[in-house]
TrEMBL record:
This is TolC family protein. It comes from Rufibacter hautae. Belongs to the outer membrane factor (OMF) (TC 1.B.17) family. PANTHER family: OUTER MEMBRANE PROTEIN TOLC. The keyword Transmembrane applies. Residues 332-359 form a coiled coil.
Length: 439
């Protein structure tokens, strides 16, 4: 039994030493570094940034139809054919396998100068779409930063709990050593040694499970940061909570800065500009055109075997819609319905945001109260554990009482860590909804 005990303890100590050596080599990842890396590398942010750039590239007067279209064309066709020609005086001319050619080319310009102001509405719509792309990018950035912050503070919480389990193992190891010594000098039964070893093994299992959870969270963080998922790192131990948030202030900020609400406003404006383009179809469309053309025709038989020409062409075109089977009226009615739907969507999103804020703020207040309560419980549990361990060293207390004090301290520490984490996550969620999330 003695050999088994020392073998187990040696293995455990070697594990701790190896883990400590590895921890020294790990990088310390701060929240600022994590957010910076995510902004540079995260795939969702990059994809949203590409969409924004496309929307930005689309804002041109040419895309809105304000500029003319210029085209150039060239055609060179050749023929080989048998031809027969009968003239009015009865003379017949024949050519076998006669060759002919036609060469045509030119440059033309077409410009719609008026289409019921639809082109101006389209250009303004392209500008609004660019703003929508920027808003969607902002929404993606805030969402991914919130994910990074949530995962970061989850790692802090798990590190705090790892320390609590480390403390539990240290105490259990002390109990095993003490029980073994007492057994060897005849002052304790073997049952006390076995109970101490069972508790030690239980605490070791809890530590291993916590280490597994911590490692998996590290992998998830590396995935968010788009880097090697096998990178090991540590994070600072502190969780600083902003306890000065107010519901009125958050509601006011959300009305001005929430990306989803801003996107709803832009979507409503985009739909209004769509309706303006539909109404433009009632007006005439006026265009101008000009061009330079040349041609050359050669044939083996005919009154003229070669003809050429070149010159300018120009003109004005106009078209006026008169009747389209009542489709214009139907399209305008549908456009007005879409405007109403966009307004309803804005109101729905605004209502949803206010409801999210109210619920999240209540949870935030509850978690702040729990942080204060669990902090007090943790301090009391620590004092009780210190007193219990001192009595245990003096031999005036049972191992069952030591175990109770040990578990009370571990559980209080874990609850305090969870309360801190939940309060911080509540703070992050509130700022994400308000559109004010920052470091």
């Amino acid at each position: 039994m003695l050999q088994y005990r020392f073998g187990f303890l040696s293995l455990f100590l070697l594990t701790l030493l190896f883990g400590a050596g590895e921890a020294k080599a790990q990088e310390l990842l701060t929240l600022e570094d994590a957010v910076r890396i995510a902004l540079e590398r995260n795939y969702d942010i990059k994809l949203s940034a590409n969409d924004r750039r496309i929307a930005e590239n689309n804002v041109t007067r040419g895309n809105a139809g304000m500029l003319p279209n210029v085209t150039a064309n060239l055609a060179n066709n050749r023929t080989i054919q048998n031809s027969t020609q009968t003239r009015s005086d009865g003379q017949v001319n024949e050519v076998s396998w006669g060759q002919g050619s036609t060469l045509n080319g030119g440059v033309g310009l077409n410009w719609t100068v008026f289409n019921g102001f639809a082109m101006f509405a389209r250009y303004e719509q392209l500008q609004e779409l660019q703003k929508l792309g920027e808003t969607n990018l902002q929404l993606t950035i805030i969402s991914r930063v919130a994910d990074v912050m949530g995962t970061f503070y989850e790692l802090v919480q798990q590190q705090q709990q790892l320390r609590a389990y480390d403390t539990a193992i240290s105490i259990s190891r002390l109990r095993v050593n003490t029980a073994q010594n007492r057994f060897e000098i005849g002052k304790a039964a073997r049952l006390e040694v076995l109970n101490a070893q069972v508790d030690f093994n239980t605490d070791t299992t809890n530590l291993l499970r916590q280490q597994e959870l911590y490692r998996n969270t590290q992998i998830r963080m590396n995935e968010l940061l788009v880097r090697d998922v096998n990178i090991r790192f540590s994070v600072p131990d502190d969780i600083l909570i902003d306890d000065q948030l107010t519901l009125a202030g958050l509601t006011e900020q959300a009305a001005q800065q929430n990306p989803s609400l801003k996107a709803a406003v832009l979507n409503r404006r985009i739909v209004e500009l769509d309706a303006k383009q539909v109404r433009a179809n009632r007006y005439p469309v006026i265009g101008v055109n000009t061009g330079y053309n040349f041609n050359r025709n050669r044939s083996a038989l005919g009154f003229s075997t070669l003809s050429t020409g070149n010159g300018l062409t120009y003109g004005v075109s106009a078209s006026v819609p008169i009747f389209s089977g009542f489709n214009q009226r139907r399209n305008e009615q549908n456009a007005n319905i879409q405007i109403n739907s966009a307004q309803l969507q804005y109101e729905q999103i605004n209502q949803n945001i206010n409801a999210q804020l109210a619920a999240a703020y209540q949870t935030y207040l509850t978690n702040l109260s729990l942080v204060r309560l669990e902090d007090n419980n943790r301090r009391i549990a620590r004092q009780n554990l210190d007193i219990t361990l001192e009595k245990f060293r003096l031999g005036s207390i049972t191992t069952v009482e030591v175990r109770d004090a040990q578990l009370n301290y571990v559980n209080a520490t874990v609850r305090y860590s969870n309360a801190q984490f939940q309060a911080k996550i509540g703070e992050v969620a509130l700022k994400e909804i308000a559109g004010t999330l920052n470091l």
